[in-house]
Amino acid sequence: MEGLNACFKLWKENCLKPEAESKDINIIINLMKRIHIIHEKYSEQLQNTHRQKLAKYLKYIGFGNLAYSVCHQVKESGTEKDISKYSVDMGAARFQLTHMGPYLFREERSDSDPRVNHFIPDMWQSELLDVVDNNESAVIVAPTSSGKTYASYYCMEKILRESDDGVVVYVAPTKALVNQVVRTIDELFTNAQPSGKALCGVFTRDYRNDALNCRILVTVPQCLEILLLAPQRQKWVKRMRYVIFDEVHSLGGEVGEVWEHLLVMIRCPFLALSATISNPDHLTEWLVLTKRYWQHVESTMENSRPSQNVSEGSEKPVKKRTVASYRVRLVWHKERYNDVEKYVCSLKDNEFLIEHYHPFAALTVNHIKKCGIPLDLGFSPQESILFYDAMVHIWPEWPRMQELEPEEFSCFKNKLVIKKADVKKYEEELKKEIICWVELDPSKVNQLLNFLKPQTFDCAESDKQKMFPHFVEKLKTMDRLPAIFFIFNIRGVEASALELFRNLEKRSSHLDSDAKHQREIISKAEKKEKENYLETHTEISPDCSYADDTAVDDETLTELLNKLMETRQGYKLRDLLKRGIGYHHGKMEHAEREVVELLFRQNYIKVVIATSSLALGINMPCKSVVFTEDSCFLDALNFRQMSGRAGRRGEDLVGNVFFYGIPLPKVERLLRSDVAKLKGQFPLSISFILRLMMLVAKADDKKDAKAKVLCFMLFKVLL
User: Fold this and answer.
1) Phi/psi of residue 333, nearest 5 degrees
2) What is the average pLDDT score of the chain?
């Protein structure tokens, strides 16, 4: 309560200042945050005097309706005229949605899960752990950075604990993701393995280490297919206990047929993870059919095996293997933890205009009629208020205006603590109302969409490139770093990073010239002081760097930077990293990418310029994502994968997506386009048929090999 009293006292002082026409609303935000916490967590401990104090504060700031809901007997300490000067001049519900969106409480479980030590999992995360405990399979669809990968490592820990022989296979679409998973496994698991066994093995097209002699194999789809179809590797295949498919939406990509082969062939349970599948229910239905087939095969083979009667003198125990379940669950978590707000950036007279882009502005009447509103086109609480106000502006006689007014909406009315779920209900009501508008008067919807569109200005591409370093500086002053800047060609990535570096060096040279002038006036007699001065001025000024020197200790930083000197281009990257700048693309050496990823995760470097190499699965969440170049590779799938990195759970209140130099029509298409539905490839080719024939001819277990071939005939296409 002391903090609450201090906030209210500070607010009164702020309101009484004669020169302060605009009140510091952050004081009231902190006040309401404290009231929310007290009401939600300590409501039972509140005494009547405490409730009266809460009610008094609420009445003073203009939330009289909430004051009487907290305490029916509010002590009068002044006339309405006396306390009106402390009011925030808006209703309680509108205030919470406009200013407190990032702080609204979510429906979270408060009881801990004994299976998780470091945090309290959400309900859907606990369901994933149940899937693994029951040896079931699951298709897991959840936004980027939501925590779905945790189930993968829980699965690995379970298999390592239960068996000395079982193998977990982790399938990743890219080598960069393979390398990251291997590093994470080495950090998480330090258990000693049985003699002759390695903890983690790697099998990619250009590198192989302990692939058949490990407990956890991290590989790419093509290499796992080689193992599954090799007749001499079938004993190893039978040791597989779980397969984890990361970024399983790659099934719809160039090598999608390989992913289909794997999903059809494996007999053990699996986890299929993705953030961007538009039809996961359809994929799950197909996988259920394949599992039913293998269940039938297993039961048939069990019945056909001759019973092995143990003689009376024999007491040799038979070690039972954990029975795998053939159930396939769909775990679909749709809501992001952090809201993501979009901004379009344009250049006018060498000045940056950064306009908030309301997601609904990307739609058209025809799109709403034909396709409806995209499922992932969500609003932040503030965007819901902006949308309601725009609707009232376009149609002042709107029949449901009063009903959907924030102070009168059923989920908000007289509610002291508005929760995130309440705001979602409000958002859904507004969307339903817009669909009614489309049917009643499409012209009003057109007016609404035009009203929401931001104002932008066109400028030459060369001007945008020239001003790029200044745009990064703008984001720094706005406190929007760390950020990932996406450019879709390698030359452009490195050129932009170098241009940013040169801009910082140029600024540093101006500071050095000033320092030189100061050094010249130092007396020769003060030699010791001069040496100390020179020593302190060899460090890079914070104004000329994006690095956070407090994030990594000097010894670790030196070790990582020295590691780069073993690579061909390491000297160039080393200088950039010292200034807090990194770049990331597929042609870099493994050690270079590893250092950039590590320093970015540890918050040392604040700016990374990358190609789509960071689109798939790499653990590099940030505060902001910036699209700096239009490209044919910037499609709905890549946009969602990349923009999903914005907003770090537990660190950022809101994620930010900036469009810098992207035409407005392209921005609109990206926001309103649904991710393409997964469609099956035709997974049979001449070479693949020959490999199946070889498997049947040379495999020791003929029945198992024939069952695999028959499975391909039955499920050869994802319908």
Assistant:
1) -105, 115
2) 84
Sheet holding 339-348, edge to edge: 351-357, 339-348, 654-660, 624-627, 483-486, 607-610, 581-584
- E strand or H helix at 658, and its extent? strand 654-660
Residue 18 has pLDDT above 80, yes or no: no
Reported for 705-710, long-range contacts at CB under 8 A and 24+ positions apart, including other chains, are 705/231, 705/234, 707/294, 707/297, 707/301, 708/265
Q: 707, 295 in Cβ contact below 8 A?
A: no
Distant-in-sequence, close-in-space partners of 234: CB < 8 Å, separation ≥ 6: 699, 700, 701, 704, 705
Helix (H) or strand (E) holding 660: strand 654-660
The number of C-alpha atoms within 13 Å of 297 and in the hemisphere containing its C-beta is 21
Q: pTM for the whole thing? A: 0.85
- What is the distance between the alpha carbons of residues 454 and 450, in angstroms, rounded to a whole number? 9
3-class SS at 281? helix
Q: Which residues contact 393 (CB under 8 A, 6 or more apart)?
A: 451
Tokens of 134: 């029951």
Which DSSP helix (H) or strand (E) runs through 340? strand 339-348
Strands 607-610 and 581-584: parallel
Complete edge-to-edge strand list for the sheet that includes strand 198-203: 208-209, 198-203, 214-219, 167-171, 240-245, 270-274, 137-141, 328-332
Distance CA 87, CA 348 (A): 38
DSSP, res 646: B
Among 200, 236, 230, CA closest to 218: 200
pLDDT, residue 99, reads: 93
Question: One-letter amino acid identity for 331?
Answer: V
Average pLDDT of the segment spanning 620-636: 90
Region 126-147: mean pLDDT is 89
What homologous superfamily does CATH list for 461-518+541-672? P-loop containing nucleotide triphosphate hydrolases (3.40.50.300)
Q: CA of 267: how far to CAs of 194, 394, 561, in Å?
A: 25, 59, 45
Let me know: does 501 contact 579? Beta carbons within 8 Å. yes
Q: Which residues of 272-311 are buried (b: 16+ CB within 10 A; e: fewer)?
A: bbbbbbbebeebbebbbebbebbeebeeeeeeeeeeeeee
Cβ atoms 70, 416 nearer than 8 A: yes
Structure-token match 């490139």, residue found: 465
Residue 180: φ, ψ to 5°: -65, -45
Q: Residue 565, exposed/middle/buried by CB under 10 A (0-12, 13-18, 19+)? A: exposed
Q: Comparing 16-20, 537-541, 710-714, which segment has the lowest mean pLDDT?
A: 537-541
Q: Which two structure tokens, joined as six digits, stand for 95?
A: 């205030």
Return the H-helix or E-strand segment holding 302: helix 280-304
SS3 710: helix
Q: Are strands 167-171 and 214-219 parallel, antiparallel or unpaired?
A: parallel
Q: Which two tokens stand for residue 305?
A: 């095996």
- CATH ID of 123-299+323-334+690-714, from 3.40.190.10, 3.40.50.300, 3.40.309.10, 3.40.50.720: 3.40.50.300
Could you say which DSSP state residue 455 is in?
A: P
Domain locations along the chain: 2-89, 123-299+323-334+690-714, 365-451, 461-518+541-672
Q: In the structure encoding, which two tokens stand for residue 313, read together? A: 């003198």
Contacts of 12 (CB under 8 A, 6+ apart): 60, 86
Instruction: Give residue 186's Cα distance to chain centre.
Output: 23
